From TrEMBL:
Origin species: Paractinoplanes durhamensis
Record bears the keyword Secreted: no
Protein's name according to its UniProt entry: Serine hydrolase
InterPro entries: AmpC-like, Beta-lactam-related, Beta-lactam/transpept-like, DUF7586
UniProt domain Beta-lactamase-related: residue ranges: 15-321
């Protein structure tokens, strides 16, 4: 890990300090992750530090999503499965698991009864107490805390253990997040509300929300969330691989048509910040606000935790801290290295391929994958090998599509079949299969005369 420049560190400190003062937060702690680990951690205010726990609110939903995607990776569930196939008896039996993760299942935002964030979970002991009404017909994006309570219950049932135990065993321990818990463990910050018209602190309740815990109960530290942010950028095969993590930051619903700057994936918020794509989550509970933003393209992440109910725009603060590092010290690419070895069959596929008149390039990668790009070099997707002459598309238009190389009787590749899209070595090659069913002028000249 390379250290930040002194002027970058001072800019980060200045933004953190002004944020704490202007937001009138009793304390705020922030961290920057780059090149595989934390490169900056600082706090401003009273009684705080990198090992002090704060409540992280809805960042908890990303942990739930990781646990659900683990079930999917182990083929214990399908993302298109209805919840009732694995957890029957709720009003959301027909809701797809994918839609619950994406907040597109038509569920209400909150549980019935008194506000769950400020009341003990003993008021909602059963799953039937979590969701008070059936999903609505309009199933566009609508943020739902009860939906993630149901997903937490799904994890409990299929793992045969409590949500807290599964969380610890399958995420926290492998990642070394020893100071992340469902209930506070000293040292931890106290939650405060700041009087709107006077600099006076008012205590907020620290409740155990019971079955609603998966929606926002988790406590963590800046140091632990730095480890977690690194995982959210690059994955970790002990927990969840990078390909599965990429599902979380793939938009699952249309963004707000009035802004087009934000969307939501699977359990993860997405932001388009003047071309910089951020993924992560904000969080709030009485007395606390938090944010983790990652920018995989810059290999930079920012964590911000504060103990105030309102006033500090912690999501914007975290994004600005990330911008400071990414803009002042842009990512330096790794040196170009030639491939030490390559399968001859893959090398034979390298170079230009045409879908009709449109030119594309295939490039073999060191990991055995193929990369599909435009002639200008823009990546259009990757191909993951699944067998001899077979791949599956990852990203781009052909995401999830089967791809195969078609050979003639002599064993030479005649064309590539991208889910019925035919790519050939020459545009409209008269001797090859015609791409997309478009008639070739060479092969139809005589018929056109008739």
């Amino acid at each position: 890990m390379s250290e930040l420049l002194a002027e970058t560190r001072r800019a980060l400190r200045h933004r953190l300090a002004t944020g704490q003062v202007q937001g009138r937060a009793p304390s705020v702690v922030a961290a920057i992750v780059r090149d595989g680990g934390p490169v900056w951690l600082e706090s401003w205010g009273r009684d705080t530090g990198g090992d002090v726990q704060y409540r992280i609110g809805s960042i908890s939903k990303t942990f739930v999503t990781v646990l659900v995607l683990q079930l999917h990776a182990e083929s214990l569930i399908g993302l298109a499965d209805p919840l009732g196939a694995h957890l029957p008896g709720t009003l959301a039996d027909g809701a797809r698991i994918r839609d619950l993760l994406a907040h597109t299942a038509g569920l209400v935002s909150e549980s019935p009864g008194p506000w769950w964030e400020r009341t003990e979970g003993t008021l909602r002991p059963e799953l039937t107490d979590v969701l008070g009404s059936a999903p609505r017909e309009d199933r566009g994006f609508h943020y739902s805390n009860p939906g993630f309570a149901l997903l937490g219950a799904l994890v409990e049932k299929l793992r045969g253990a409590s949500f807290g135990d599964v969380l610890r065993q399958r995420i926290l321990e492998p990642l070394g997040m020893n100071r992340t818990t469902l209930l506070p463990v000293a040292p931890h910050a106290l939650g405060w509300a700041v009087h709107p018209w006077a600099d006076v602190l008012q205590p907020e309740p620290l409740t155990d929300t019971g079955r609603m815990a998966p929606a926002g109960q988790i406590w963590s530290t800046a140091e632990d969330l730095s480890r977690y942010a690194q995982f959210l950028m690059h994955g970790d095969d002990r927990v969840l691989d990078a390909e599965s993590i990429s599902l979380m930051r793939t938009p699952a619903s249309a963004p707000d048509v009035t802004s087009w700057h934000s969307s939501y994936g699977l359990g993860m918020e997405l932001r388009n910040r003047e071309g910089r794509l951020l993924s992560g989550h904000t969080g709030s509970m009485p007395g606390f606000v938090a944010t983790v933003w990652t920018s995989p393209g810059d290999d930079v992440a920012a964590v911000v935790l504060a103990n105030t109910t309102a006033g500090l725009r912690v999501g914007s603060l975290a994004a600005e801290l990330l911008d400071i590092v990414a803009d002042r010290e842009p990512r330096i690419p790794a040196p170009w290295e030639p491939l030490e070895s390559i399968v001859p069959e893959l090398l034979a596929l390298a170079g230009p391929w045409y879908w009709g008149p449109a030119a594309h390039l295939l490039k073999p990668r060191a990991d055995g994958w193929l990369e599909l790009t435009s002639v200008s070099g823009a990546v259009e997707g990757r191909l993951r090998p699944t067998g001899d002459d077979q791949w599956v598309g990852v990203g781009g238009y052909h995401d999830g599509e089967d791809v195969r190389a078609v050979r003639d009787e002599a064993g030479a590749v005649t064309h590539l079949d991208f889910g019925t899209f035919v790519y050939t070595r020459q545009p409209y090659d008269p001797a090859a299969v015609i791409p997309g069913g478009v008639l070739s002028p060479w092969s139809t000249k005589s018929s056109l005369r008739r």
